[in-house]
Amino acid sequence: MGDGFYAEPEGLKKMARSEMADLIAAVDLSRSELASTLSDDDNTFDGSGAVDGPAAEWTSARDLLLRVLEDNAENLTLARRALVEIADRYVAADEAAASGLRRAAGAPS
Questions:
Q1: Better-predicted residue by pLDDT, 55 or 107
Q2: Considering Cα of 98, then 100, then 105, then 108, what sign does the dihedral take?
Q3: Residue 106 in 3-state DSSP?
Q4: Residues near 35 by Cβ (< 8 Å), separated by ≥ 6?
Q5: Helix 52-104 and helix 3-14, axial crossing angle in degrees, nearest 10
Q6: How far out from the chain centre does Cα 65 lie?
Q7: Using an 8 Å Cβ cutoff, are 94 and 8 in contact?
Q8: 46-57 pLDDT per residue, tens
Q9: CA–CA distance, 16 with 88 (Å, rounded to integer)
């Protein structure tokens, strides 16, 4: 079929393999960097009570952000797989349509 149709699935696959992989890696790195602050809590919040309010707020915000980043990484991974599946299905549908047209025209498929 036309070159434009074939390029679209390949573009989806390229995006999934490259750009989305980079985005997933960036989200994973952000989560890892944020998680590394867990080990600093004892040094930062000395337990004297002077910063209990901010400590609780920080811990709550960090926990929420860790969950959000984990969910985002998972969703991006699923979206990446979906893009590849969509591209594969487009290619398969295009090949099936081309084969059907060849058969209808009397050519071997």
A1: 55
A2: positive
A3: coil
A4: 66
A5: 150
A6: 17
A7: no
A8: 777 777 788 889
A9: 12
Query: Which amino acid is located at 101 in the chain?
Result: L
In the chain, the amino acid numbered 83 is L
Placement of tokens 């980079």 in the chain: 22
Query: Which two tokens mark 15?
Result: 């995006």
Burial of 9 (0-12, 13-18, 19+ CB in 10 A): buried
Residue type, 98: A
Q: Which pTM value belongs to this model?
A: 0.75
For residue 7 the two structure tokens come to: 């390029």
Task: Tell me the C-alpha distance between 107 and 44, whole Å.
Answer: 76
Residues 54-74 have a mean pLDDT of: 95
